[in-house]
Amino acid sequence: MTRASPEPLAEDDALTCAQVLRAAILLDGPVPISHFMAAANAHYYATRDPLGAAGDFVTAPEISQMFGEMIGLWLADLWDRAGRPACRYVELGPGRGTLAVDALRAMTAAGLAPPVHFVETSPLLAAAQADRVPGASHHAALADVPDDLPLLVVANEFFDALPIRQLVRAAGGWRERHVGMVDGLFLPTVGGPPLDAILPDALRAAAPGSIVETCPAAAAIARALGERLAARGGAAIVIDYGYAGPAVGETLQAVRGHAAANPFEAPGECDLTAHVDFATLAAAARAGGAETHGPLGQGDWLRQIGIEARAAALANRPGRTAEVVTALARLTAPDQMGALFKALALTAPGWPRPEGFA
Ligand code: SAH
Fold first, then answer.
1. Is 297 helix (H, G, I), strand (E, B) or coil?
2. For 163-211, what is each residue's pLDDT tens digit?
3. Of 158, 179, 121, which Cα lies nearest the Cα of 274?
């Protein structure tokens, strides 16, 4: 008897992210938070453009062209003082490609026009980036970017989307936080072996219920970046919201339609992020061989590299003053993005000191 070959799943029958996670949990038990966050964000970014007023959140490059321009000028200045070597522009998680367009325009004006490499896992956003920056190469990971020249690397709101692990101080000691199912709902639970031995000394005695987050994926990429820069030269600028860490506290959050949401309610349908532990990121980059500068508040850094002069020039154009003043405040004011968001620079040993971190 011949067997009918299985019918391929029709589009309408495709499993939702929640169904896949539910099946995994029912079969094998609760999954680590990192598994849940990785699956949710992979689905989320693969199925929509989340940026802008019509999406779920707005990022700095979408607020104003000044943001990408200042980054481009900062890179061009470093490259000029490094002796104008042949190099590659690399952006991690470029979103719509807006930052790259603005940075490359400013860089070109300064005589710097490197080949462009985008590290992006979402096919949908990669297509949008290819429209905005024709000729850019796409890669699934930093390791796939050619390893022959110095790199000028930009990562804005990239590291916050990488999956974190959460350790929680349970009755008997530190354990990993997992996500299980209760009555059809995703809920955090505690599981796995005791993990007290991996807690930093300063945090081990935290009160029961305390949560500590770690992001092994971010540390691994920072270390690889440090190794690349040390081996071939170049620099990187990492901008994200975060803290000096390591610290006690939960920062996992979900955003949907510009409002906070429950991270466990609709996996794959909202943006899951966690604050970036800049101290650990910088330590990993240094372990890879790079020098680090900062972190510094985004507002201070942008002001010290001249955003106010750029804003004044743009505001001079007829009818644009109010828009530029508002954008400058959003990017730099301490009660907006200026203080919570931080800039960390990495440079190759022997490269000049970057501007703005004195
Ligand atoms: N830098 C952009 C977009 C930030 S949103 C901006 O500032 O507007 C996060 C970006 O990182 C998206 O492009 C998303 O698809 C990408 N991303 C998320 N996880 C990723 C991963 N593991 N590897 C590569 N890109 C990832």
1. strand
2. 999 999 998 899 999 999 999 999 999 998 999 998 888 888 999 999 9
3. 158
Residue 322 confidence (pLDDT): 95
Give the SS3 label for residue 153: strand
Predicted confidence (pLDDT) at residue 1 exceeds the cutoff of 70: no
User: How far is residue 70's CA from residue 92's CA, in Å, rounded to a whole number?
Assistant: 17
Question: Quick check: 6 pLDDT over 80?
Answer: no
- Closest ligand 1 atom to the C-alpha of 91? 1
Around ligand 1, the residues with Cβ closer than 6 Å are: 41, 45, 51, 59, 61-62, 93-95, 99, 119-122, 125, 156-158, 161-162
pLDDT at 15 exceeding the cut of 50: yes
CATH class of the region 60-162+219-245+276-347: alpha beta
Compute the mean pLDDT over every residue in the chain, rounded to the nearest whole number.
Answer: 94
Q: Is the pLDDT of residue 5 over 90?
A: no
Q: What ligand 1 atom has the least distance to the C-alpha of 217?
A: 22
Q: pTM for this one?
A: 0.95
Dihedral angle over CA of 16, 22, 25, 28, nearest 10: -70
Q: Whose CA is closest to 241, among 131, 140, 342?
A: 342
Task: Pick from 47, 125, 158, 159 the residue to mutate for probing ligand 1's pocket: most ligand atoms within 8 Å of its CB.
Answer: 158
Substitution candidate for ligand 1 out of 43, 45, 66, 99 with most atoms within 8 A of CB: 45
- Cα 269 to ligand 1 centroid, rounded to whole Å: 15
Atom of ligand 1 at shortest range from CA of 122: 15
